[in-house]
């Protein structure tokens, strides 16, 4: 728990924990934890219908992080707070920053990726911002800055640490956009399947570090999630 008041919860989600059930597997979820701790939040938010037709409860969940992504998430404790927060995400007034280790050294120190994201024609289909995407293309914008260029001292692989600020919230947006500029995220088996993991990561090297928004009390709040152990270990191996 990073913050709590009468309207919101802010948590530091660990990597490996799915936000809510995907309707395919039985495993612990953040949604189950919320219901166990705050049963009164059961009807807050919007349920989701899985491809299998199952109605999935999403108590207080305003936005999501991928299973493999760690970091800060905000949840609404009541319907009024849910609507208040959801509007900010829809209007793109929420400020978000992620840390990502990527393969290679970007030529520039800063960049903005504006590329529509759509499904690929591959089997199984993936998201893509490159040639071959199809149907229901969604506008997406991602800003990034290089924090440090270096190498994995164990493997000798060129690696960079980026600060990434998504301006939209598409599925896999950061992972897809960084792949599109030929610097996919370290250990991303889906979008960098031919790259060997580096810096000791066994999951996608992506951490939601910072979130800033206005809570229903009218106060603008900033929240930071401390770096998880695998990021701290990577720092020791990154030179």
TrEMBL record:
One Gene Ontology term of the molecular function aspect: catalytic activity, acting on RNA
Active site: 66
Catalyzed chemical reaction(s): a uridine in RNA = a pseudouridine in RNA
Position of the signal peptide: none
Keywords: Isomerase
Coiled coil: none
InterPro entries reported for this sequence: PsdUridine_synth_cat_dom_sf, PsdUridine_synth_RluA-like_CS, PsdUridine_synth_RluC/D, PsdUridine_synth_RsuA/RluA, RluA_PseudoU_synthase
GO BP: any one term: enzyme-directed rRNA pseudouridine synthesis
E.C. designation(s): 5.4.99.-
UniProt similarity note: Belongs to the pseudouridine synthase RluA family.
NCBIfam families (UniProt xref): rluA_subfam (TIGR00005)
Name of protein: Pseudouridine synthase
Organism listed in the record: Candidatus Kaiserbacteria bacterium RIFCSPHIGHO2_01_FULL_48_10
